[in-house]
Design a protein that fits this description.
Helix content is 46%, strand content 4%. It has 398 residues and is mainly alpha-helical. The chain has a domain at 1-140. The chain starts with a helix and ends with a helix. It is found in: Cell membrane.
């Protein structure tokens, strides 16, 4: 029991200091700034008050997971922490719901037009939940982001969280189902927000978007959004045909991500956690093997081949690339440790101990002291700051 208490406290400190401390006190949304020492630093594009739907949903998953762990405790203090964490999640999810409901007219238009200008926005202001950029100033049509929200809304509701409070909200969520159910023939800007590989703003059919939509449709089908207090009016319905169509197109696309991307590390989110969209084990294995063989590097996985984002050769004065320019980015693509974490989670769910150890060790080698401005010795032992009230020796024995 003591070990469990120590672990819970350890994770609570990490979740609070890395996530909850940044949650906006009014809207509950997570802004896009990061901490460097004790000073808040905005990103280069000065988007510090922008809250991405996808980032916010992923950001609250750790909070929700920890709340579920605290639920198992019989201690009154831990129960209070569970409630605190749950309400932080509810606040964030309801803020996203409110922001999207303010664009309900766009959802109605999109169901008829499938036009990029009629799509829900991919991000909102963290200060007030309103739009922060214009319809044509960003690649807003991201079916995977909306689908991720629907997927997690359904799972959180099934776990006992009361996120949806009224029939108006139920009807809007049903409209979100209509919004994403045609993902199998709706080109969008994808998980990286820029469309095709040349960044000319051309949407294309993305396997990651289709997979996330398929998972969301399966998860929310016949779910009562009011939980145990609900009735027939609060149940969400999905046509089975749309699930099967998305499944068929998804498996015909894989292991490709899209027409311009032969493979993409973002596919890890649909062949494993959180979507688990692909039913064929053979297709899952082929896709994972392709990602590991073509995108894996020393510091993480490339997003996709010939990805110019954040490379020294990228022209920062324009967003798009010329077709012949892509060759310049060959073998110098940025590597992102995030995808090693996806592979650790994949190993956990599949029970692959070797994969868990392999990618955990790779991640540990990349850890660095946040107080250091640079790493003098890449092979140096990583530094991890444990909470002051956690006994590290006791923790290591667990």
């Amino acid at each position: 029991m003591l070990k469990d208490e120590v672990l819970l406290q350890f994770h609570y400190e990490w979740v609070y200091n890395t996530i909850l401390v940044h949650q906006h006190p009014v809207t509950g949304l997570l802004p896009s700034f990061y901490e460097q020492g004790s000073r808040k630093v905005n990103n280069p594009n000065d988007l510090s008050h922008h809250s991405w739907v996808r980032d916010n949903v992923y950001g609250c998953l750790a909070v929700w997971g920890l709340a579920l762990a605290y639920r198992k405790s019989v201690d009154a203090v831990n129960r209070a922490k569970a409630y605190e964490l749950e309400q932080s999640v509810v606040k964030l999810m309801r803020s996203l719901l409110f922001s999207m409901m303010c664009q309900s007219d766009k959802v109605e238009k999109f169901k008829q037009s499938q036009a990029t200008s009629d799509s829900l926005h991919a991000k909102y202001s963290s200060a007030n939940g309103k739009v922060c950029v214009g319809d044509k100033e960003w690649g807003h049509l991201q079916i995977d982001a909306t689908s991720l929200y629907v997927l997690m809304l359904s799972q959180m509701t099934a776990s006992g969280l009361q996120i949806v409070w009224s029939l108006d909200e139920v009807h809007f969520v049903q409209n979100l189902v209509f919004y994403i159910e045609l993902a199998y023939h709706t080109p969008d800007y994808g998980i990286w927000e820029r469309g095709d590989k040349t960044n000319h703003g051309l949407p294309e059919l993305n396997a990651s978007s289709i997979g996330m939509a398929k998972a969301a449709l399966e998860s929310i089908n016949e779910l009562d959004l009011f939980g145990a207090q609900g009735g027939p009016k609060s149940v969400i319905h999905v046509m089975p045909d749309y699930i099967r169509r998305n499944q068929a197109i998804l498996e015909s696309l894989l292991p490709r991500e899209s027409n311009s991307k032969e493979i993409d590390a973002g596919l890890l989110s649909i062949i494993s956690y959180p979507a688990f969209s692909v039913e064929s084990k053979a297709v899952v294995d082929i896709t994972r093997d392709d990602i590991e063989s073509k995108l894996k590097g020393r510091y993480g996985c490339k997003r996709f081949l010939r990805d110019g984002y954040m490379t020294p050769m990228e022209n920062r004065n324009r967003l798009h690339y010329e077709p012949a320019e892509l060759q310049v980015f060959d073998n110098i693509e940025c590597e992102w440790p995030l995808f090693f974490m996806y592979l650790v989670l994949d190993g956990l769910f599949r029970g692959d101990v070797q994969q868990i150890h392999e990618y955990s060790e790779l991640l540990e080698d990349l850890l660095m002291d946040p107080e250091e401005s640079y790493v003098e010795d890449v092979g140096a032992k990583p530094v991890m700051d444990f909470p002051k009230d956690v006994d590290v020796q006791t923790l290591s024995k667990t």
